[in-house]
Amino acid sequence: MTAQPIRHVPVLGREAVAMLEPRAGGVYVDATFGAGGYSRAILAAADTRVIGIDRDRTAIAGGFGLVEESGGRLTLVEDRFSNLAAVCAAQGTAVVDGIVMDVGVSSMQLDEANRGFSFRLDGPLDMRMSGQGPTAADVVARASETDLANIIYIFGEERRSRAVARAIVTARRLAPIATTRALADIVSKVVRAKPHEIHPATRTFQALRIFVNEELDELIAALAAAERVLKPGGRLAVVSFHSLEDRIVKNFLVRRGKTGGGSRHRPEIERASLSFAILTKRPLTPGEEEMHANPRARSARLRGAERTDAAAIDDGAERPAWPSLANVMRGG
Question: What 8-state DSSP symbol labels residue 298?
Fold first, then answer.
């Protein structure tokens, strides 16, 4: 007998799938397919159909076995999850019963040196999830010192962002910064970490990864698309791994699922017009056992909501004024 591959267990996977309450005949979207852990659980829970989306071609290719195993109940689509409404429409499904999102980089991507996501493994400074567009090396080579400082501060929440940006600009004058180790070494010279703290380059790498993949813009668009695609009673479950993502999810749900006290200048929204009923007053977090088994789970947060029969809310929320990948690469 051949050994069976170890199946990926997604962080807070049991809780997220339970929140969706999969039922026979339902159609569900695994908006960030990855290694297929959520899709596998949804397929196993009932006679469901799942549409899996991932911008990473490697992830899609890795899911072909599950497609066959599902007997046609799983469809995989290579695309950004911000396009989930168009993906569903192309599959002949205007509305769905549930959507799960696992936001951020996957363990598979972190563990492949040639993808350039991790400072732990030396490899090309790439960080692209789709393999398309500018790499992290391109950003490091072309962005101005001011843009680099803003990127690292906003997306990495690195307090030493100006010093890191200055060090990068100084180093790139001497030689191109083309590898993860080269960048990590540069950052480590200006960001000091105490014992048992995270690696000095953690926040800078996070910032570049988020920026290169436009992850927060994608999340904002994906949440809005989910609101349009979910049918009344349909459920949304989102797992995030750092405060920037979780804040976006929380604010999105609060604007659409919670009434405020109101004022004479801004009257309270009528409850009937709210497009979501929030299922998690506070985010669910992993237990001790899960964090022990998977240290990467320690920062995970799960939020969920159920779609009402109200129309999608266009609240005029705009993209925050953070650096744009296109503008930075144009030098604007």
Answer: G
Strand boundaries in the chain, DSSP class E: 27-30, 49-54, 74-78, 96-102, 230-240, 276-278, 301-307
pLDDT digits (tens, 9 = 90+) for 3-15: 334 456 788 999 9
Residue partners of 242: CB distance under 8 A and separation at least 6: 104, 206, 299
Name the maximum alpha-carbon separation found in the chain.
Answer: 72
Helix (H) or strand (E) holding 63: none
Q: Which residue has the tokens 């993502």?
A: 245
Give ∠ CA 290-294-298 in degrees, rounded to 5.
75
Would strands 74-78 and 301-307 be described as parallel, antiparallel, or unpaired? unpaired
Residue range 273-308, pLDDT digits in tens: 899 999 999 999 999 888 888 877 788 999 999 999
For the ranges 6-20, 131-145, 297-311, the lowest mean pLDDT is seen at 6-20
Rounded Cα distance between 212 and 326, Å, is 10
The string of DSSP codes covering 152-174 is HHHHH--TTHHHHHHHHHHHHHH
DSSP symbol at 25: T
Mean pLDDT of 307-329: 85
